[in-house]
Amino acid sequence: MMAGLYDRMGSIPTAQLRRIAHIWCVVAGTLFLAYLARQLRQGMTDGAGHPFGEDFLNFWSGAHLAVTGQAGIIYDLAAFHAFEIGIAGAPIDLYHYSYPPVMWLISAPFGLLPYPLAWAAWQLLGWGAFALAVRRLAVWQLAPAQWLLVALAVPAVFINAMGGQNGCWTAAIIGWGLILLRERPAMAGMILALFVVKPQLGWLTPLALLAGRQYWALAAFIGTALALILITLPLFGIDAWIAYVQQGSLLKSVILEYGDGTWHRMLSIFVLVRHVGAPIPLAYAAQAIASLTVALLVLRVWHREGPTARAKALLVLGVLAGSLYVSDYDCVMALLAALWLGPQATAGLRGRMVLLLAMPLFAAPLALMSGVALGALALWPALLGASLQRAPYLAGDGLR
């Protein structure tokens, strides 16, 4: 029955999908503008604790405090919250900074801009970098004008924009890193090393590079990641890293293990198991099994095929399915996996990818209604389908 559903989803005519995409873009754009207007009811908030730009307030505040010599405030929950209230101009819920000091370096240009302008730049530049990666991959599969529609219509892009999050940026990082892997391996490794700011999503990448014998890229990855970390030491001191580790431990307990208002947005096996009432040790054990399974599936293909289109798609899907902390907005990168799999995918696999691409719209509402974070279950059919499909990917990826 499920296989039949996947087959039907994978056989939806292209013209029908294009009409759906156009309608969705209009609906999503209208909802987004209404949402922004609502967030200006009281100062730069909605009057109910949510600031304009949502989580982008964290990114901007951290960058601004770092470039103005106030980095000591960033990991002080009370002081950081007070600073953000001052920016928002009204009371807001507790927003926290959960990124390492390397993020201060990378996001510093945004901290130099006024907050509204920085928000607009964050949204447009992040989506633009992602959209150009889509254009590069879609050139062999779509008419010239369609890549823009595809990059706009992915539901996770809407979810990411609503939350002011970094899903487009991380999709651009893994997208361009893998696109450039064959022709410019050192540059690819340097780009992929930017995952040092989100290590929960970056852990699988160096293993894949090693399994695929991409040694120049791996060396550039390691060297760039170490350089970024070392640069922060004279700028911010070792105390910044100690504070980051301490806050990370606290947030892991509050947000990940006990789900303080976040479980419905999350897609990991750990959260799924915790959501059904299992104890923390059992949830960690389940996540360890899931992550190990993902690693074996991904590394097997990278070792056999090298960086083919399927291997790249599997790495993207593995990053999502195998991570301990992964959210609906991170699924922006799933479109890249769909494009790499492309026309060589079976109808069933295309159906699984359609389900995965649509999932961010429904995962959180379903979790709130059912009490169980079921979004993780949409990741695994695509991962398993791509890893087990017998397709002629060995000759090369066909896409750059």
UniProtKB/TrEMBL annotation:
GO terms under cellular component: plasma membrane
Any coiled-coil regions, as ranges: none
UniProt KW keywords: Cell membrane, Membrane, Transferase, Transmembrane, Transmembrane helix
Entry superkingdom: Bacteria
Compartments where located: Cell membrane
Keyword NADP attached: no
Bilayer disposition of the protein: Multi-pass membrane protein
InterPro entries: GT87
One Pfam family matching this protein: GT87
Transcription listed as a keyword: no
Molecular function (Gene Ontology), one example: hexosyltransferase activity
Record field: transmembrane: 20-37, 102-125, 137-158, 188-209, 215-242, 282-302, 314-341, 353-380
Family from the record: Belongs to the glycosyltransferase 87 family.
Protein name as annotated: DUF2029 domain-containing protein
